[in-house]
Amino acid sequence: MRISIVSVGKLKEKYLKQGIDEYLKRMSAYAKVEIIEVPDEKAPENMSEAEMQEVKRKEGERILSHISQDSYVITLEIGGKLLSSEQLAEKIDELATYGKSKIAFIIGGSLGISNEVQKRSDFALSFSKMTFPHQLMRLILLEQVYRSFRINRGEPYHK
Hints:
Alpha/beta_knot_MTases; Ribosomal RNA large subunit methyltransferase H; alpha/beta; 22% strand; S-adenosyl-L-methionine; globular; methyltransferase; 5-stranded parallel sheet; 5 helices; Alpha/beta knot
């Protein structure tokens, strides 16, 4: 299985990079995982609704340019479907069973994701009704995908 995590913005925090590197190393036994960073759009502090939509549109174009036609796209959205770790594992297992060997997880920028990216999405996933920094979401997502592979293989993992 090939997993892409397409994320807006550059990761700067050393502690997050270390955690991400650890999970990338652990996951290498289960899947080929790549993290694709797309530049965030520079935006003024107080934007109009039209300016916000334009920022999301530009970031969305960058995201879409990294998604292949045969990828199953999962967008991370506050309004998406809440799943337990076991349900996410089941979803990933189901995709593999039905020949969807490429999964692209999308983490938008600070304003969220564009309508175009939402239209390309096959599944909207929510981790919580809370808002998390998009840089931190990379680490949380990797941990949960790693946990999914462990669950699907019947391997022990702390609960």
